[in-house]
């Protein structure tokens, strides 16, 4: 729809929304996990014995246009395991409902020393708040955003275009008509907010909830505190 039909459009960079005075592009997605969650005694009992720093790997899964290669993910986790060991810390790997079982199997076979928490005994918001560094598969805007909201260093684990993605999005420039997560990655990189496995990045930005609420208040003439 034409953005001129709306008084305010709030979006994020993966959507090809034309720039306009009524369009607000947030740096990251709004998340319900924008504030740290305190661990329960049982959760603390599982996390506290693990030496720090805690490196958290958050695994997404296959989405439209993008796929996780079990070999590539296992290789990335192995590198991070070596990094954790070199610093005397711990590697924690958490999966999502979208994570293919074959990916977890490849990780367990390749990196038997990492802590794979896939049984729900520790809530994901607790793991987010606990981690000293975050490494996220690149398929999920929400997972990347939640990691950035912690204010800790974040590195991206690459994903691959599948056949449909290569056809519909193209392998060169960003798609001008479809949601293209590469546009989101590029925007974060340009702001210095997103790093790699070897060099996770840390940056500052306003909380997207606060930014969006302020824009709505201005529109409604309510004033902004």
Features:
single chain, 225 residues, alpha/beta, two-stranded parallel ribbon, 8 helices, 35% helix, globular
Overview of the molecule:
This protein has 225 residues and is α/β, with parallel strands linked by helices. Helix content is 35%, strand content 15%. It contains eight helices and nine strands. Strand 7, helix 5 (141-149) and strand 8 form a beta-alpha-beta unit. Helix 2 packs across helix 3.
Biggest β-sheet strands, sense, barrel = 5 strands, parallel
Mean pLDDT: 92
In N-to-C order, the SSE pattern is: EEHEEHEHEHEHEEHHH
Number of helical segments? 8
Strand residue content: 15-25%
Query: How many beta-strand elements?
Result: 9
Give helix % range: 25-40%
> How widely separated are the two ends?
32 Å
Alpha carbon gyration radius? 19 Å
What is the overall silhouette? Answer: globular
Structural class: alpha/beta
Weakly predicted, low-confidence segments: none
Strand numbers in spatial order across the main sheet = 6-5-3-7-8
In a few lines, what is going on in this structure?
Helix content is 35%, strand content 15%. With 225 residues, the protein is α/β, with parallel strands linked by helices.
Write the layout of secondary structure elements.
Elements (H helix, E strand, L loop, with lengths): L8 E4 L10 E4 L14 H7 L6 E5 L7 E2 L2 H17 L3 E5 L6 H10 L4 E3 L6 H7 L2 E5 L3 H9 L4 E4 L2 E2 L1 H6 L12 H10 L17 H13 L5
Parallel strand pairs: 1-2, 3-5, 3-7, 5-6, 7-8
Antiparallel strand pairs: 4-9
Helix pairs in contact: 2-3
């Amino acid at each position: 729809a034409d953005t001129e039909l709306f008084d305010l459009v709030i979006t994020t960079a993966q959507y090809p929304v034309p720039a306009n005075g009524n369009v607000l592009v947030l740096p990251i997605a709004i998340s319900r996990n924008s504030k740290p969650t305190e661990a329960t005694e049982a959760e603390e009992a599982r996390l506290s014995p693990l030496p720090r720093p805690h490196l958290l790997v958050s695994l997404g899964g296959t989405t439209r246009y993008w796929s996780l290669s079990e070999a590539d993910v296992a290789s990335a986790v192995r590198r991070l395991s070596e990094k954790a060991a070199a610093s005397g810390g711990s590697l924690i790997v958490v999966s999502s409902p979208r994570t293919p079982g074959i990916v977890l199997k490849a990780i367990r076979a390749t990196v038997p020393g990492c802590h794979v928490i896939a049984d729900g005994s520790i809530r994901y918001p607790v793991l987010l708040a606990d981690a000293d560094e975050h490494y996220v598969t690149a398929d999920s805007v929400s997972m990347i955003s939640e990691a950035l909201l912690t204010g800790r260093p974040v590195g991206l684990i690459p994903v691959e275009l599948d056949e449909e993605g290569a056809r519909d999005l193209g392998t060169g420039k960003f798609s001008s008509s479809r949601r293209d997560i590469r546009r989101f990655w590029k925007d974060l990189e340009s702001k210095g907010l997103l790093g790699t496995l070897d060099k996770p990045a840390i940056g500052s930005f306003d909380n997207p909830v606060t930014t969006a609420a302020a824009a709505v208040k201005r529109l409604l003439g309510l004033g902004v505190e």
